[in-house]
Amino acid sequence: MSVITRFAPSPTGMLHIGGARTALFNYLFAKRHNGKFLLRIEDTDRARSSDEATAAILEGMDWLGLTPDAPAVMQFDQAARHTEVALDMIARGTAFRCYATPEELQARRDLGEEKRQAAKADGISDDAKAALLAEANALLAPYRSPWRDGAPAPSRDAPYTVRLRAPDGGDRMLEDGVQGRVTIQASELDDMILLRADGTPTYMLAVVVDDHDMGVTHVIRGDDHLRNAFRQIPIYEAMGWDIPKFAHVSLIHGPDGAKLSKRHGALSTLAYREMGYLPEAMKAYLLRLGWSHGDQEIFTEAEATALFDIEGINKAPARLDLEKLGQINSHFIRATDDARLFDLLLPYLESNAPVSDAETVRIRAAMAGLKDRGTTLPELAEAFAFLRDIRPIQMNKKARKSLSEEGLDRLAGLRDELQQLRQWTAETISHVISSYCADHDLSMGQVGQPLRAALTGGLPAPDIAPVLEWLGQDEALGRIEDQTAKARD
Ligand code: GLU
Predict the structure, then answer these.
(1) 8 Å CB contact between 279 and 301
(2) Is the CB of 10 under 6 A from ligand 1?
(3) pLDDT by residue for the chain (489 residues), tens digit each?
(4) Residue ranges per domain, the chain?
(5) In the Cβ-directed half-sphere of 346, how many Cα atoms lie within 13 Å?
(6) Alpha carbon of 63 to ligand 1 centroid (Å)
(7) Residue 74 in contact with residue 50, Cβ under 8 Å?
(8) What does DSSP say about strands 161-164 and 193-195: parallel, antiparallel, or unpaired?
(9) Which helix (H) or strand (E) is 114 found in, with range?
(10) Which is the closest atom of ligand 1 to the Cα of 221?
């Protein structure tokens, strides 16, 4: 059997990170088994669904590289097929026409509520109380229609809904891939509506028909759908269809252990793109958010594809941990090749001013040396700020202090030596600086500090020789000259 999974978001908002994780798990499981990963947009709730939300979900999936293996199925477009299945179920005797009106059903619930309240009244006997409660419970129990066994219609043109004939009695058991064995009583299930009085199919019917028609073998989704599985399985049974394997993943919680909500910060997947996280880091983080394999923390996509399994999904809810996401992001930033990293950084570098050609050359030259200087892209972009066209350079207090008369003399001397250099590499530059220090009986700090001040404004830059290399000979000497000339004026 070839594995087919699906992600089935409702287009009522953004792709939140819980949804992205569900999509990722389905994607990886399909890839692991050389199967197919499908996408279904569950847009049957016409009032709440929107094209914008569909576009946002697709954009989020695209950013994460979770490409489905076939064009998305739009659920609303399958309505005729959903209806056809409901009618087929009537023919099989597994569904029926129910003529109860909404008013009757409401009256039934109201009566149940009344009896429940009446049972609480003072001064009634225990027996009377028990009888009232029993009546209330029967009225408020999941609805079993009087038409379930084929009672005739009250009139020829009486409006009706089509309901599933729910399983009669006993236990209903689900072997869930994550939650283990889950059992409920059949009496907890109602004769649920498949077609409304206006003939439109319900969501619960649509999900099952679509999953069947798409050939879905494994349903991996949030555990907020666990109870739905018990309502959906009878539809498969009624149609004699193969039941997919279910795996209900526990929802994501915030760092405080409470269910994830807006107050825990960004919930939208694309917000993480805006904050400067790489898609591969986000994916690696979401993977670990609820799935583990030994104590390995970071997985490339190839590793995840080779290893992902349902057994590794943890039953306990995972907690969002932004510090960990930051660590994983740093890891993937360092692993990103220089050319791509430059492209990723460009929007952040250009947030103030366009990047000139000369700046581009310097930033590209520094890419390998500075890529470990930030957890997110905007933070990293900051580390490149000193390579911009920023002369005369802004200096911090300490830097200014290092440019004393003595400091400037040393800089002037060093500049003369550096000017002679024909080959401008960190190695040759470093050699010149060391010889200069040795010749003038100076420590590295005595030369390095003023040099750093002139070149970077005093940033705690990495080794100074590479900084000169990245700046290039003209810019580096120009920056030194800016300071020494100022002193001469
Ligand atoms: N459309 C449902 C949701 O957005 C998912 C249904 C399912 O996976 O079966 O939560």
Answers:
(1) no
(2) yes
(3) 799 999 999 999 999 999 999 999 999 999 999 999 999 999 999 999 999 999 999 999 999 999 999 999 999 999 999 999 999 999 999 999 999 999 999 999 999 999 999 999 888 899 999 999 999 999 999 999 999 998 999 999 999 999 999 999 899 999 999 999 999 999 999 999 999 999 999 999 999 999 999 999 999 999 999 999 999 999 999 999 999 999 999 999 999 989 888 888 778 999 999 999 999 999 999 999 999 999 999 999 999 999 999 999 999 999 999 999 999 999 999 999 999 999 999 999 999 899 999 999 999 999 999 999 999 999 999 999 999 999 889 998 999 999 999 999 999 999 999 999 999 999 999 999 999 999 999 999 999 999 999 999 988 766 899 999 999 999 999 999 999 987 666
(4) 1-71+250-335, 90-176, 336-389, 397-488
(5) 14
(6) 21
(7) no
(8) antiparallel
(9) helix 102-118
(10) 8
- Closest atom of ligand 1 relative to the 42 alpha carbon: 1
Of 39, 208, 225, the one to substitute when testing ligand 1's pocket (max ligand atoms within 8 A of C-beta) is 225
Task: Say how many Å lie between the CA of residue 15 and the centre of ligand 1.
Answer: 12
Pocket test for ligand 1, best of 42, 45, 49, 231 (most atoms within 8 A of CB): 42
Domains 1-71+250-335 and 397-488 share a fold: no
By residue count, the chain amounts to: 489
Q: Which two tokens stand for residue 468?
A: 């000169």
Q: How far is the CA of 9 from the centre of ligand 1 (A)?
A: 5
Per the structure block, which two tokens stand in for 126?
């225990």
Annotated active-site positions, please? Answer: 262
What's the gap between Cα 146 and its chain centre? 46
Which stretches does DSSP call E strand in 29-72?
Answer: 36-41
CATH 1.10.10.350 given to domain 397-488: yes
Question: Is 207 near ligand 1, meaning CB less than 6 Å away?
Answer: yes
Cα–ligand 1 centroid distance for 329 (angstroms): 29
Write down the CATH superfamily of domain 1-71+250-335: HUPs (3.40.50.620)
